[in-house]
Amino acid sequence: MLGINRKLEELDKQGKTIQVGVIGAGQMGRGMISQIEKMLGMRVVITADIQIDNVKNAYLKSGVDSNDIIETNDGQEAAQAVKSGKVVATTEAQLVTSLPEVHVVVDATGVPNIGAKIAWDAILNKKHIVMLNVEADVTVGPLLKKMADASGVVYTGTAGDEPGAIMELYDFADALGFEVVALGKGKNNPLNRDANPDTAAEEAARKGASPKMLASFQDGTKTMVEMTAVANATGFLPDVPGMHGFVGGVSDLPEIFRLKEEGGQVSNKKIVEYINGVAPGVFAIIASEKEEVNHEMQYLSMGKGPNYVLYRPYHLTSLETPISIARAFFYNEATIAPWKGLQAETVTVAKTDLEEGQFLDSIGGFTVYGHILAATEAQNLKALPLGLVDRNVQLKRAVKKGDIITYDDVVQTQDSTIWRLRKMQDETFQVNAPQDVPVKA
């Protein structure tokens, strides 16, 4: 199988390109568009964003001439623009998912409900879908993957995001027959479950980031969601609810992930975890029972065993997404997907004391944060999946700070795509999750 770079070069020599449609021209989308514009055999031919200037600026910064950017919400005009070698800027996401000229759709919105709808529409239009939206994936990914499989297209997470980078290490070790003991990532900042857009504002301004996005990293939500995606792809589970959050460097990892009875700090193998001290890297802890393999690993300066660490010290987020686009197009392969179904769940926890009648906000906001549980435990608690939380979810009763919010605690004031898909998923996979959350008229 040719390397992706050579496959792209071959495609380019044939005068062909992988034609990509992107939805969301924020930080992730902008970087990806610029990266792809430099590549052979691939181009972002249409991009949608509710702010059309975001799209035009993304194209201009990538080096596209302003005369080659066609602003339209009309399908025929968009198709003609792409056929003539121009690119399209639109405010209509459905134009991206339905345009026949698009081969692969990328969701770069970061909003769970919008991402779920984009994936649904892309699959119905028989297009590969790459999700830069882990929150949507951990909520309804098993259903979307089943739909994509039935439609003959690829549903995938992205290379460059931490779950995708972890999956590359897992696939490498698993293919070689190593025992994979644990999978994990570094956390960039100390856990602060009280973090919100106000407390994160100053740091966000220094970094040129969204305060809400930064708060979702600081309060642990992003980490919980990312490791839920890894759990659903591999079947690995958190050793304890919420994971441990150990502190250590790369050299400490093999000993940390030994069982407690062997002098380590964990109770189980095949677990997902995060570490304070190895960010922005990802890791896999591997082992072997073979004497000769252990001898070779020690000769290769991989440590004394019995555990060894595979460590990748970087992940390039959306700049690596073109690799997932190409894998889907050339090989019909996913970088990461929920192959094992719903194994873990990121559930919703009150960030502060919440009152009856109060509306929840969203990930990285003021009201809730995410916490990883085994899916069976989440189901037994009737815990509300975090990806279902938005401003249309209202509390029927008061909830204390630190308590898990359940389906019984909430009412929907407006129906949404992701709620409908989650209900369909639970019915399809016969999960004992509540199906009767009322929707206010």
TrEMBL record:
Residues 160-321 form the Oxidoreductase DRL-like catalytic domain. It comes from the Bacteria. SUPFAM superfamilies: NAD(P)-binding Rossmann-fold domains. InterPro entries: DRL_cat, NAD(P)-bd_dom_sf. This is NAD(P)-dependent oxidoreductase.
